[in-house]
Design goal:
Helix 2 (74-86) runs parallel beside helix 3. Helix content is 34%, strand content 25%. It is of the alpha+beta class and 292 residues long. Strands 1-4-6-5 form a four-stranded mixed sheet, with helices on one face.
């Protein structure tokens, strides 16, 4: 095989409840994961050794500066795990083209790790089973397992215990908005003191709406503990959400932030909102996508 592309995807959380702190220092969550079409690409070509590179020409410079392409990159860690497990000595020139913003609550790094496992399995013809690939993915991060399957799923535990949910009858247009703020997930979790308006009951309500194929109701019922934790610390996040809510759009924050997700009826709404953001003088990154 001379060359292949492994196209990944990103995710949004339609509701996220921190349900408690674990003895191992991690936190249990309850959340609905939903994949979106915005994704990075991994390109594999023949080479005598493993060479890894990356670029993000479509993203602002401050986001480009956050992305390492060395051994700390989760995709490369995934590759090393595959090499260790299979003892494969083949080479490959691998290039990561980033379209998903880093540190945005969209799961970009975890998606890259999953894409690496799936892509290198094809490129090297390793014939790993789905279970073997899942076993390789799980230690890399709590939500890497989700990116091995995609779709819609309810995640509990640290986010790695997944229950698949029915797919949408129709995919939905979304506008993703990332304010120029970097939020440390560890810092966000450290603010949690044991109570939240977001609970498993609110996630139950989101799941019920999704079973009825009612995305508007799912967004309306969703709550995110991280909004409660971060809005007091970063007023711009609350202002960003309010900007779209005041214009009549269901808007939620995904993951640990800072990205907001605006639910749209049609793509043209996204273009109009992008213009309004520009006119208001905000330096927010805006990206149009659909559920997948």
């Amino acid at each position: 095989m001379k060359s292949i592309e492994e196209l990944g995807f990103s995710k949004i959380n339609i509701g996220l409840a921190i349900t408690g702190k674990r003895e191992d220092g991690y936190h249990n969550i309850d959340s609905i994961f939903c994949s979106t079409r915005l994704g990075d690409s991994l390109y594999f070509t023949k080479h005598h050794s493993v060479v890894f590179s990356g670029s993000a020409p479509e993203l602002p410079q401050y986001i480009q500066d956050l992305i390492p392409y060395d051994e700390s990159n989760l995709a490369l860690k995934a590759l090393r795990s595959v090499q260790t497990y299979t003892r494969c000595k083949l080479g490959a020139a691998i290039h990561l083209l980033k379209r998903v913003p880093a540190a945005a609550g969209l799961g970009g790094g975890s998606a890259n790790a999953a894409s690496m496992i799936l892509g290198i399995n094809r490129f090297w013809d390793l014939q790993l089973t789905e279970q073997e690939m899942l076993d390789l993915a799980t230690p890399l991060g709590a939500d890497v397992a989700f990116f091995m399957q995609g779709g819609i799923a309810r995640g509990t535990g640290i986010g790695n215990q997944l229950k698949s949910l029915p797919q949408f009858e129709d995919n939905h247009w979304l506008l993703l908005i990332k304010p120029n703020i970097s939020v440390s997930t560890a810092k966000a979790y450290s603010e949690f003191e044991g109570k939240s308006e977001a609970t498993s009951k609110t996630i139950d309500a989101v799941e019920a709406a999704l079973h009825e194929n009612n995305m508007q109701e799912a967004f309306k019922m969703s709550r995110n503990t991280f909004e409660e934790l971060l809005f007091p610390l970063y007023p711009e996040l609350e202002a960003c959400k309010r900007f779209f809510v005041e214009r009549g759009f269901q808007t939620i924050m995904t993951g640990s932030g800072p990205t907001m997700v605006v639910l749209l009826d049609k793509a043209m709404d996204a273009f109009h909102l992008q213009e309004e953001v520009k006119k208001a003088g905000h330096d927010w990154l805006t990206l149009i996508t659909k559920t997948k």
